[in-house]
Amino acid sequence: MVANDTVITLKGSVEIVSEFFFTAINSILYQRGIYQPETFKRESKYGLTVLTTTDQGLLTYLGSVMSQMESWLTDGDVQRLALVVSGIDSGETLERWQFNVSVDEAEGKDGGSVEISKAGNDENNMSYNVMKKGSGADDAATAKKMGKKTVKEVHDEIQAIIRQITASVTFLPLLNEPCSFDLLIYTNKTAVVPKKWADSDPCYIMNSQEVKLRSFTTSFHKVDSMVTYKEADEWEL
Q: How does pLDDT run along the chain (237 residues), one tens digit per residue?
């Protein structure tokens, strides 16, 4: 780990972004009740108390995702990560948490998309899926030069995002059915994708509401955050 006042390198930036994704995913799964609260433990991170899963199946799954994510981030191949919450009974996509990644090296590259999904909340029901498809200009991660920042400065920005995720329960509709989640990782077409990943649907929400969250930047990456959701009166019985 680098000290808080250390200027961030590419390797350090990759570690910061990956750690943020891991923490954000855990926070969303806890706050939205996708996993039981007793399966989480409290940890201190970013000057906050955050919740991290103790479910071994989920930890293994997320560890595999983050390992691949770090490889793609290092190569400048990640465009965005999306966490999709779906109703198990209805099959409806209810929420879509999206984190757009901009990297200087990705400018001008063709887009594609990759999804890793975990259907349901059973550790034995995990699958790895990849989707490669053409994309327009909106899918290309266009970045500009970002100034040097210290780890503490970046952690302060991340802290604000985690606080917003925690506060999301005040405006998001209640999830009135058991839910599962999928993770979608959008990459450039040139990214090397493991063979065990397969095609998937992007899981967009029609007529959705969108709330933009804060962003953070390192010396190499910028991450913009948002959540889209289906309004309660559209899917509640």
A: 445 657 788 999 999 999 999 999 999 999 999 999 999 999 999 999 999 999 999 999 999 999 999 999 999 999 999 999 999 999 999 999 999 999 754 333 444 454 444 443 444 334 444 444 344 334 333 334 455 788 999 999 999 999 999 999 999 999 989 999 999 999 888 888 888 776 678 888 988 999 999 999 998 999 999 999 987 664 444
Report CA torsion sign: 35, 66, 61, 120. positive
β-partners of residue 116 are: 128, 183
Please name the helix (run of DSSP H) or strand (run of DSSP E) that holds residue 18, with its range, or none. Answer: helix 10-31
Of 127, 132, 103, 125, nearest to 117 by C-alpha is: 127
Query: What gap in Å lies between CA 124 and CA 141, rounded to an integer?
Result: 34
Instruction: Name the phi and psi angles at 16, rounded to 5.
Output: -65, -45
Cα-based angle 64, 58, 223 (whole degrees, multiple of 5)? 60
DSSP H/E element including 100: strand 93-103
User: 66-86 in b/e burial notation, b at 16+ Cβ within 10 A?
Assistant: bebbbebbbbbbbbbbbbbbb
Give φ, ψ of 173 to 5 degrees.
-65, 150
Query: Any idea of the CA torsion for 50, 141, 98, 20, to the nearest 10 degrees?
Result: -10
**What are the C-alpha distances in Å from 118 to residues 80, 115, 227?**
18, 10, 19
